[in-house]
Amino acid sequence: MRLRSLNAVAAAGSAVIMLGGCGGGGGGQAAPAVVIPTQVASVSARPAAPTPTVDVTSETYESAKSFVGHYVDLVNYAYRTGDARPMRSQSLAECVACSRYSTSVSDVFSSGGHFEKYAMEVTDLAAPGRAGTEVQTVMVTLDYDGLVWVDNAGKRRSVDKPASDVRLFFRLQHAGDGWRVAGIDSGAVT
């Protein structure tokens, strides 16, 4: 299952309006076409936040697993764009790791920096929890690129090295309208 978020690519073109007119008099030749270039609409520097493509709201194993894949997309989006709001909206206040992710993103981007390299790629999801409950634990196996922070002066700092086959346990709580992350741990959660 590949849920890697990719950088959005925007392209802009120019619009051309062709205006033609008739020459004066009866049956004369048409005036030459006039080409008027228009301003290209500003392209947003920030792509839209990822949206789930499958059910992430039901109290089922599959929904919980899909939600975690979507949440990883939101983490990648936050580190790529500096917009941690979508990630925070899917996290409960008790999630310490979620708060750290959000604070890291906010601190770096508010100081004029950015993350040059960061992407988590889910390679496996398993939900060993109980069917039909409001609480699920999803074991995630993922690979991630090294985390490189670039400050506002352009200095690069390697914060984390690339890793493969990393296992994390996402503790989820169903909030009526869908799942929320209550915690992210590197050890088994009961």
Chain-averaged pLDDT: 77
Sheet with most strands: strand arrangement: 4-5-8-9
- Unreliable residue stretches: 1-44
Radius of gyration: 24 Å
Structural class: alpha+beta
Tell me the helix content.
10-25%
Count of DSSP strands: 9
Largest sheet: 4 strands, antiparallel
Strand content: 25-35%
CATH class of the domain at 61-185: Alpha Beta
Measured between the Cα atoms of the first and last residue, the distance is: 25 Å
CATH topology tier name of the domain at 61-185: Nuclear Transport Factor 2, Chain: A
Number of helices: 3
- Order of secondary-structure elements: EEHHHEEEEEEE
General shape:
globular
CATH architecture of the domain at 61-185: Roll
Protein name: DUF6318 domain-containing protein
Domain DUF6318: 50-182
InterPro entries: DUF6318
Q: Can you describe what's shown?
A:
It is a single chain. The protein has helices at 61-81, 85-89, 96-110, and strands at residues 16-19, 34-37, 114-117, 120-126, 135-144, 147-150, 156-160, 163-174, 179-185. The chain has three helices and nine strands. The two termini are 25 Å apart. With 190 residues, the chain is an alpha+beta fold. It has a domain at 61-185: Nuclear Transport Factor 2, Chain: A. The strands form three sheets. It has a four-stranded antiparallel β-sheet, with helices on one face. Strands 3-6-7 form a three-stranded antiparallel β-sheet. A two-stranded antiparallel sheet has the order 1-2. It is 22% helix and 30% strand. The longest helix is centred in the middle third of the chain and has 21 residues, at 61-81. Mean pLDDT is 77; it is low at 1-44.
